[in-house]
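Input:
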Amino acid sequence: MSPSPSSPSSLSRRTFLTVTGAVGAAALTACSELTPGASSSDKSSTGPVSTAIPADEKITLVVADADDTTMTPGLIAAFRKKHPNITVKRNYTGWDDYLKSINTTMSADSAPDIAQFTSGMQNLVPGRLLLKVGEYGKAYGWAKKFPGLDQITLTPDGKTVGTGHLYGVGAGLSFEGVYYNKSKAQKLGLTVPPATLEELEALFAKAKAAGETALVAGNLDGGLNHAFNVLLSAHLTPKDREAWAYGHQSATIVLPEAEKAAETLKRWVDEGYVTPKVNGVSDNDATAAFAKGDGVFRISGNWAAAAVAEGLGEGAGYFNMPPVTSGGKVRTTGAGVYYCVSSKSKNAAAAAAFLDFTAGAEAAAITAKAGFMAPDAGAMPSQSGLLGDVQKGWQAVVKDAGLQPFIQNSSSPTMADTLTTQLQLLAGGKTTTEKFLAGLQTDFENYHK
Amino acid sequence: MTTADRLTDPAPAAGAQSPVQLAADSSVRKQPRPARSGRRRRRAVALLYLLPALLPYTLFAVLPLLHTAYLSLFDWDGVTLPSFVGLDNYGRIATDPQLRAAAWHAGALILFFSVLPICLGLVSAAIVSRRAGRRGTTLVRTVLFLPQVIPLVAVGILWRWVYAEDGTLNQALRAIGLGGLTDAWLGSFTWALPAVGLIGSWVVSGLCMVLFLSGTQRIDPEIYEAARMDGAGPVREFTAITVPLLRPEFAVALSITVIAALSSFDLIYITTGGGPGNSTVVPGILIYRLAFGGGAVGVASALAIVLTVVISLAVLVINRLSREAP
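Output:
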């Protein structure tokens, strides 16, 4: 089988190397597509827009999201029913993987038309990969339809939230508060809701004295951030809080009020109010344990309501995080499922129609059923039991305009990891509250230098 | 070139023609040259045979590696225009305290991924091979090798349950009256790293055993017989014959497990994510965090290149040491 070396068809080593080299060079050229910043031409601005979508044209929209509730699929199904000519394909990815891959996904030529906006996606703004939807917003009147649009309004460098251009809408909102086990609270003689943070802590002490885990938490994946975020909401002035979370220039978290929040959390751990060995329990397992009847209180978001209601039934209760001083305004931490549009989308008008659809009354029922707060709070079907309590809590938050962003969502892309690390150090007694806050500030400054 | 040489060896028939050529050309050229050109041609043919393997390897391993090296010279968030920073990223790596911790952890993992599994694999291989043919050995072999075929993500989830506060391990401790020793293992600053390391030992030991088993089958049974005639017991047999003669298998096992230890990522990502604090952070986790979450693709690439170089050096050293005569 081996070809004769003298045959003219045989390859010399030089030819071989030449061929390999050529193939390699060709491959490298192909790779130059991958070289940094190969793309760019500003397609992120829209020209004149209209709210009409062609009804006779077949349109396909791709939606990428990490929403593990029934909201996104429900909204898609309802939207398709209303617009039979629009096919909507859904690309669901788990939260962690979504966070880490979405920048690459949105940079690809095959980017989805609509994507759930998450932390880290700020980088897409200077990359001009997100469509500025402000014009659509004006045409549809989104400012009146959606609360909390400032959370998805960004400066051109993507580093500061709250000012600049609008990049999407918040279809379903979530917020955090305190769940409690009604039957245990009754048995222990705990009066809820507490009027101040101090009173809440007194309830913790009482529960602890009765041999209960007062505050069920899990910090294996940084779940104590829920408690820390709401404590910050209560202690910090909204201005300081938002400046930091939104990444404003020269904002800082090294403040006496933040110190108080961190001290409170550390005290809760040190006094034994929090689940023992909290660093070894995952956040999901903590919710599951609480729903099974472990402990008395749990600070978490409305996304946990369904699981808690199912587990504790009639025995599940909810109240908003109390303020520092009695009668103070309700302030808590929350976010939303925000949808944004790719600047590469060929069907931006249809995509904007979907965004608008999420504000409607029809959407509100779907959103509420999934456990989120609908943009149109009035259109949410009234619910009883725990979900009803949560809904009432939401109305109080909206009334006081008390919804504030998670500090790890927009302050810097690495803040989620840093906060997890620092909270584990704090709960493990490996750091002081000063160093804890300084650690967060260092991450902030590395990004906003 | 060793592979190429080996490939050409079985084709002496092709080479047999060259003397004819040589005679014809000798009037014009000096003798050695045409001889070399014949060998050259044979080599070229051998390279042609290698092409199908070389091409995908170049495309999917070499070029991405070069591309990573190229990216490591930029400050790039993965989306917007990058700026060229030369070797700055490497400088950042050298001074990063988190990275120093990660390097230590990777070193500690060698203990759990290499040293422990090789010892365990050696002992279990010795026991299994001595009992070859008896009932149950196949079963034992299969059970010991089983962790190797389970995807690491599944392994991680499985062991999260084992190590949980009310998990299997703590239940067992309580059952034998050692309830005071229980801990949330993966959340403990002291125990998280050893706990994760032991998962690695559990996974890799079976592979080491199978490697050593195949090695013991290569050893001439007569050597064992001779030893037995001289009155050696099983332990003496093990230390005097099995261990020294398994040198090549040691090299393979050590290479594979050291690579696994230094490049570990999935197990740690699933079980602790690098926590608590930074107590189980390894280079792989840092690369992932930097590149995909932190928008620091340049630094991540630089770190990946450094890790690749370190691993290559480690494997090189292992192979050098194992090649020397005892």
